[in-house]
Amino acid sequence: MATYQEIRQMWADIGMDLEKHDEFLNSFPMVFKEILLSQQNRPQKMNYFSNVVKTVHGQRPYELYEFKQKGGKIFGTYCVYVPDEVLCALGAVTTGLCGGDEFWVPGGESVLPRNTCALIKSSLGSRLDRTSPFCQLADMYIGETTCDGKKKAWEILSQDKPMHIMDLPQMKRDQDVRRFAAEIWDLVKIAEDITGNKLTAENLSRSIRLINDKRRALQRLHSTRQASPVPISGKDALTVTQVAFYDDIQRFTDNTNVLCDELEERIARHEGVAPADAPRILVTGSPMALPNWKVHHLVESSGGAVVCEEMCTGTRYFENLVDETPTDLDGQILAIASRYMKTNCACFTTNSGRVDDIIRLVQDYRVDGVIDYALQFCGLYSIESHLVKAALQDRGIPFMHLETDYSPADSEQLQVRIQAFLEML
Asked: Around 392, how many Cα atoms within 13 Å sit in the side-chain half-sphere?
């Protein structure tokens, strides 16, 4: 394990703004302690994930730093539609770069309109401020075309770092799946040039199994949340999924399965982190990048239990597996494209699959009410909220729509609304 002095030297070596980064480090521990560590009766095996978060700008970046010193290549990604299977098969490491902290928003607003969603502003700010080691370490950023705000933000970001943008089709016809497969092939060529390695059916097959195993571990984790009483808090379950975007894949999978062993033992003992009669809440909508635990904290500190997330930092990230049976590259790439195109982001039209997912998850997780969460100025999820609300109301499923950002300024107002919603349930 790297010492603090070694980590700080790494920060300097990779060009971070140490003074500004110290400001971030001074504010983060308080949020971490107040929201995560203050919880009662946490699973013991959550300690691993808590330590990853506690040292998120230290230990894991130092591993990547050493990997780069040995000639390894790192790709920073901004979306769950970027196929990690291909990049890992080529010997590269991927790391998530989406910003989830208010600290980085002003840096984003230095180049973006204020009426841009907090995730985009925070993501750009973390790079432009030179305060994210993950942004500094990446050899290339990979973006995508899931919303207009991101598409234009990538143009700004590409002036500062090599960037590849994947064109995600906005419909789900057979020709769209084939078109996305062609996009993956374009990524293969670029990644082969950067890594100096060649994609083969053998190394891609190993990578598909590796990442499917990570998804299986997350599926197992989230299935435990169907129990009553729920054995793990929504904040902790969300944290595990957030860590999945950064951590070593095999180590993450192993530790997630160890956590699941403990949770399944808790279920056998009827042991939970909330009373069995606590209102069970599904949160759906915009992604919640680390360390955005705002809505979960408000719900659970008001007596509710978040038991499921239908979002990119939830079920969309791990629900579908890549078909492992194809043995040739063309078949494998098409299988990867097919898997990713099953993810029901609000960027698609039509997007009835997302409504179907929400209704299915409400039944599977025995949900009492749905909170539809949209970041302010996220037009996709704010507009789609109308259709989600109508579908849930038709089925008598309680529904509440929230729009917020990363700032704590509206927390008291939101908590009043959330408490009223929980009391109604």
From this structure: 28
pLDDT digits (tens, 9 = 90+) for 354-366: 999 999 999 999 9
**What single letter denotes the amino acid at residue 22?**
D
For 225, 263, 414, the CA distances from 220, given in Å and listed in that order, are 9, 10, 32
Average pLDDT value for residue range 301-318: 98
Contact call for residues 151 and 158 (beta carbons, < 8 A): no
Exposed, middle or buried: residue 112 (CB in 10 Å: 0-12, 13-18, 19+)? buried
Q: Is pLDDT at 30 greater than 90 in this prediction? A: no
Residue carrying structure tokens 């799946």: 177
Nearest Cα neighbor of 123 from 108, 113, 112 is: 108
Residue 31 confidence class, pLDDT cut points 50, 70, 90: confident
* Structural contact between residues 221 and 317, judged by C-beta atoms closer than 8 angstroms: no
At 132 the pLDDT is: 98
pLDDT tens digits, one per residue of 248-298: 999 999 999 999 999 999 999 999 999 999 999 999 999 999 999 999 999
Dig out the tokens for 34 from the structure.
Answer: 């107040």
- Kindly report the pTM of this predicted structure: 0.97
What percent helix, strand, coil does the chain show, rounded to 5? 55, 10, 35
pLDDT band at 27 (very low <50, low <70, confident <90, very high): confident
Establish how many alpha carbons lie within 13 A of residue 217's alpha carbon, considering only the half-sphere containing its beta carbon. Answer: 23
Contact criterion met (CB below 8 Å) for 199 and 89 = yes
Tell me which H or E stretch contains 41: none
Retrieve residue 359's tokens: 């209704």
Sign of the CA dihedral with 258 first, then 272, 366, and 387 last = negative
CB hemisphere CA count around 44 (13 angstroms): 6
Q: What is the pLDDT of residues 142-182, one digit of tens each?
A: 999 999 999 999 999 999 999 999 999 999 999 999 999 99
Give the number of residues written for the chain: 425
| β-strand pairing of 140-144 with 163-166 | parallel
* 246/272 Cα distance (integer angstroms): 28
What's phi and psi for 68, nearest 5 deg?
A: -65, -40
Mean pLDDT of the chain: 97
Q: How many CB atoms lie within 10 A of CB 320?
A: 17
Helical ranges in 101-200 per DSSP H:
105-109, 118-128, 133-137, 148-157, 174-195
